[in-house]
Amino acid sequence: MGVLVVNLFCFGFGYCAEYLSVRLIKQGFQISATCRTNEKAAMLKAAGIRPVLLSGEKLSAKELGTADHVLLSVPPEQDGRDPVLNFASAALGELQDQFKWVGYLSTTGVYGDHKGAWIDEDTPIGALSERGQRRVSAEAQWAATGLPMHYFRLAGIYGPGRNTLRALQNGTARRVVKDGQVFSRIHVADIATILEASMKNPHAGRAYSVCDDEPAPPQDVVTYAADLMGVAPPVLQDFATAELSPMARSFYGENKRIHNHRLKNELGVTLAYPNYRAGLSALWDSETY
Q1: SS3 (DSSP) at 7
Q2: Which strand ranges, in their side-by-side order, compose the sheet holding 149-154?
Q3: DSSP for 227-277, written as a single string
Q4: N-to-C CA span, the chain
Q5: What is the pLDDT of residues 72-84, one digit of tens each?
Q6: What are phi and psi of 110, to 5 degrees?
Q7: Which of 5, 18, 130, 187 ranks highest by number of CB atoms within 10 Å?
Q8: pLDDT for 55
Q9: What pLDDT is attached to residue 5?
Q10: Does the pLDDT at position 4 exceed 70?
């Protein structure tokens, strides 16, 4: 695939964008990222990233600079509109021929509920939550731009500082049981690997299910983490009677097992953490979870 030379512009700079950027900077790539405060701008600059401070006005093509890759990690508004398109569509359109790759971080919520069945990117959409509907709308809005879009439908993200080990340590982990319920997950390091692989081998218009090999009941993940730590796991709670926020309860409204064949076959990715056991064990062994 050759040497990848990237000038990456990040709209939003959250957990995944930061992890990817640290990796790319070590390889000598140029990174720019939007922010909304002077404090965040100073933090980005200290990390070797060019900050683009948003003032609420439209973004100019000049501010995009010579970026040839774009990463979008800003979620849609409550009304389904994509906020980046609200202030940057003109600039992106003006520089359209400059971009080799545009990646949109979406979610597996766009697939809806499939009652635990195995699905892939081509499976017809099941019943959607409100969040899923917003993401489907956002993907369609980006598809209409004519940019070289790539959609990464992320499962539950975990990694350093954001994982079940940390939740157990903080006392926030819970074992809520709903019969037959499974969730898919993905380690942030594997997300970065997948994004890099797509940049090196772009397929404009393509969507990828970004998840590991093993969907699993959430209570099993907590139990495994507790075993690693040598602590007692939280008591089991029945989903029907558990005290959950509306947001937390809504996640249990979708149940599916997601194939990740496309990212392996098309992008040639080998996951470093093919299941939650591999990922959590590595985090525990690193002593920096």
Answers
A1: strand
A2: 50-53, 30-35, 7-11, 69-72, 101-107, 149-154, 206-210
A3: HHHT-PPPPEEETTTS---HHHHHHTT---EE--HHHHHHH----S-SSHH
A4: 33
A5: 999 999 999 999 9
A6: -70, -15
A7: 187
A8: 80
A9: 67
A10: no
